[in-house]
Design goal:
- The chain contains eight helices and twelve strands.
- It has 222 residues and is of the alpha/beta class.
- The chain has two domains: 122 residues, Rossmann fold (3-Layer(aba) Sandwich); 91 residues, Winged helix-like DNA-binding domain superfamily/Winged helix DNA-binding domain (Arc Repressor Mutant, subunit A), CATH 1.10.10.10.
- The strands form three sheets. It has a five-stranded parallel β-sheet with strand order 2-1-3-4-5, with helices on both faces. A four-stranded antiparallel β-sheet has the order 6-7-8-9, covered by helices on one side. Strands 10-12-11 form a three-stranded antiparallel β-sheet.
- Helix 3 links the parallel strand 3 and strand 4.
- Helix 6 crosses helix 8.
- It is elongated.
- Bound molecules: calcium ion.
- Calcium ion binds next to loops.
């Protein structure tokens, strides 16, 4: 059971996130200011922190800076209305793992949380760090793909989808399975998002890598 700390001073937003997370099986704690957030993290082993940037007492970037300064490796997803590129860069350089801007859909946040928690269990479980198929490697630690020796940066969901394929080589994966593993929630089954992302991966990793299995889904070539 993952325990998530929500640092958000707007009660309505905090309640919205809390309700959604609880109904998805998470345990939650809410903190309404930066100082309290710091002391909560120091006192308890949370699995992830959702951090609003505009917090009273100590703002989110300061909280992040202190946590990372103390060597805290807790995954942090910044949540904020500040969508300026400057804040994004500062947040990510300050050690945030991901970034969601308000307004947001709960499903968007949930998907990002799941990706972060999955990464964590991969590292914790001393899983294989490198997955390989032909001349394409996936480095699960750096979240990069290496195609014929060249590093290819993949956005979060493209990497997540590539990882699902590489963990199940030769196996046919249906659109529903891919939606569930990559987006982590009940996406509109009529959506073509899976096909679009398979297209991205083919373009970046090699056109022959993922085969279409008509009427069934997709398969990583072995
Ligand atoms: Ca705020």
């Amino acid at each position: 059971m993952s325990h998530i700390l929500i640092a958000e001073d707007e009660p309505r937003i905090a309640a919205f996130i809390e309700k959604g997370l609880r109904s998805n099986g998470f345990t939650t704690t809410v903190s309404g200011n930066g100082l309290e957030t710091l002391s909560l993290v120091q006192g308890k082993p949370f699995d992830l922190l959702i951090l609003d940037l505009g917090l009273p007492a100590k703002d989110g970037l300061e909280v992040l800076e202190e946590l990372r300064g103390q060597g805290q490796t807790l995954p942090v997803i910044i949540l904020t209305a500040r969508d300026g590129i400057h804040d994004k860069v500062t947040g990510l350089e300050g050690g945030a793992d991901d970034y969601v801007t308000k307004p947001f859909r709960f499903e968007e946040l949930l998907a990002r949380i799941r990706v972060r928690l999955r990464n964590l269990s991969t590292v914790k479980g001393k899983d294989q760090d490198i997955l390989q198929s032909g001349d394409v490697l996936l480095n699960l630690r750096t979240r990069q793909a290496i195609v014929r020796g060249n590093v290819v940066e993949l956005p979060v969901r493209e990497f997540a989808m590539a990882e699902v394929f590489f963990r199940h080589p030769g196996q046919v994966l249906s659109r529903e399975q891919l939606l569930d593993r990559v987006w982590g929630y009940n996406y509109d089954p009529g959506s073509n998002v899976v096909d679009v992302y398979v297209g991205y991966l083919r373009k970046k990793l090699g056109s022959q890598l993922i085969e279409t299995v008509r009427g069934m889904g997709y398969r990583l070539k072995t």
